[in-house]
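hey can u check if this looks right to u? its 255 residues, i copy pasted from the old doc so theres a chance i mangled smth
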Amino acid sequence: MTPSDYSVRSCRTIDELAACVSLQQQIWGYSDAEIYPLRLFVNLTHIGGHVLGAFAGDRDLVGFIAAMPAWRRGERYFHSLSLGVAADHENQGLGRRLKLYQREVALAAGIGFIEWTFDPMRAKNAFFNMVRLGATARRYVPDYYGPVGSRLQQGLPSDRLVCEWWLSSPRVSRALEGQPVRHWEGRPAAEVEIPTDFKQLAAADYERAQALQSAVREKLQTYFGRGFEVAGFVRGETSSRYILDEATHSMREHL
């Protein structure tokens, strides 16, 4: 299939929402106790959130993104719960199409900010979030979910970075136009390196993976405590790195 063979739209029926439940198990291997249930997806469509789907043609759901309405000190935003694409439909640009459609939905609703979490040790996700979308991060939460049975977590603590996506910011505009996301070309305030293929490393050497995760946790938390934010990401063949600058746009009073 080619990208033009797919469509992206809101999930409209109970069957389409139920397909999102099944996709969670296929993509992440969650146990029944850990997946978001059908009733949550149904409620999201009624309370100001959304469930958006990527379809092969117009009928077969192959990816989805879901978000709930959220408020912090009177400011409304979306908290994006999950984004996933079935393995045999990856590398078709569907993840980005879903995020861009989510951006359209948010802006149409008068919402200018979306947040979500991701595993800081996953270089592919970091590159997608920071470079392709223009998100940033200034919060690191150790073991965010507690123990997670997903095969992707590999038994490690569920540490998460909290992404901030300021939808109308110059940074996001640069990213969506394919331009460098950093606002200047000078030397970064700090860099934090991670393996490009952490999944393979964790499968081969759990103790080393755990030690690397702990080291990255300590570094990022230290830099965030100094007022830095993730301003970019460089993905290499064997190693990748977060680029940090002094924070330029802050929701810190709301954190």
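The first strand starts at residue 6 and ends at 10.
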